[in-house]
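Researcher: Next entry: Endoglucanase (Hyalella azteca).
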Amino acid sequence: MWALVLLGSILTMAHGLPRSTRMCESATIVEAWPGGYKGTVSFAAPSAYSSVILDLYFLHPVNSLQITTGGQVTSESDTHFVYTVGDSGSAGSTVSYDFQVAYSEQQPLLGAMVFNGDDVCGAGGGLTTAPPLPNPCAATGTTPYDYPQVLCMSILFYEAQRSGRLPADQRITWRWDSALGDGGDVGVDLTGGYYDAGDHVKFGLPLAYTGTVLAWGAIAYEAGMRSAGEYDNARAAVRWVAEYLLKAHSAPGELYGQVGDGGLDHAYWGRPEEMTMPRPAAKITTQAPGSDLAGETAAALAAASILFSDDAQFSTACLDAARDLYDLADLHRQIYTVSIPGASGYYDSFSGYGDELAWSAIWLYKATGDEAYHAAAVRHWDEFGLGDGAVQFSWDDKTPGCYALFAELDGGPAYVSALQGFVDQTINGATYTPGGLVHLDTWGALRHAMNVAFIAHRAADLGINTASYRAWATGQLHYALGDTGHSFVVGFGVNPPERPHHRASSCPQYPASCTDSWAQNQPGPNPHTLYGALVGGPDQSDNYVDDRMDFVHNEVACDYNAAFVGVLAATVQNSS
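Model: Predicted structure:
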């Protein structure tokens, strides 16, 4: 436990955590030369001991570590080494060891040590903790709501969801490397990607949808993103998904679609950095297919190939994978939960896979201009009767997204009519709360409102009832941002949610332990502000309680923010 805690502290230091970068006070460099140095550690034993386990954490990579006083050194990573020896001593007795390191680049100072579970670094390093993180997104003074700031925050949320090894420019400094063994059970590197929601499973269908819609927003509203200074951050959010999906596409005709067990994961409330439960990986193949999952992943990678057209190598890799996955989806048809039963009950594909077949084909047409994909998309439209109507645009049902892309890329009257019909039916025929929120589903009502608002913006941009559609979409956005007297975006506006259903942000500052009973039940705000997260939202009567354990109304999720980002970018662009 303490080793994990301290490892987290050391790793996050490289990611901007405001803590000392000095050598531990209990460590001294005796002699140094290019590529190496000799040092000594010396400290008072916190308690009596009959054997030694000493964890040493360096601030930069070490090629080799030798401790010259006997015992055994094992390497956990290039910055973390464990020294074991059969020494014994009393509490308060001096413990002293000589060591020597070799390195290639920057001199690796010894930043922290744990002796038999106790921090022995001294004030010069060790288990220091960060103060509450200030909002990294600056206010701009825009009224009636600060759209550029909340756009920044809506993208920032995805940094809190990152799994795997975090980059040096990570802004959410209370998160650090986690789940570095993902895929080890199958011999494939499946690190990276986003944790789904307030939990830590990586579910492929909503994750790929998130990538598609985030990319769509950045492509369609690049000017708005750039105006707010968020285009690069939006691309980074998409790339984090796309790089993971490329790993998950581990071979032709093969795609890993889930990492983690829903039951085991949901039984754990704590930091993702400290997970110890098995995280099995499950895949689809030509022999065990999943057309909805393969199709959505193809769409995400096709969209990424467009967004990263300035990076030829990455764009080509995304497009090649998208082509293969579309073939997997179309030629080997089946609902994905047959092959990945662990996703059933969490993300069942109620709409079937016809929408994803058309969706992936039309995205590939947009990415390539290849008429064969256009013809395939039209074939799927006809085969599955996609023009017959839809109620929602979501991780499950991409049909309204197909309407918008077909209307944009083909322009045929049937497609334009379907798009207008969907938006009109939602605006004029759906249920609304007394406060004016379109209420399409009990679970995550705000997510569904933002999804349709995004489609309304796309229709408006095509010249369909432009003024009225934009006004309606802005009204839905304003509800989320605070029109009823409180915001539904964590960290933004008046009286925002403070207790989102989110494990990592509910844990206290290090070095305090995160017990599930405390983190779930303590009445105060989550110790870490989950900036930019859109919570599920109110019931049909506008009732909402900021309850950490209300996962229907107060959980957050990757798919909740995806279209929300696009709506904000569209609003910034159209307000300029």
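Model: Note for the record: Residues 41 and 97 are 5 Å apart (CA to CA).
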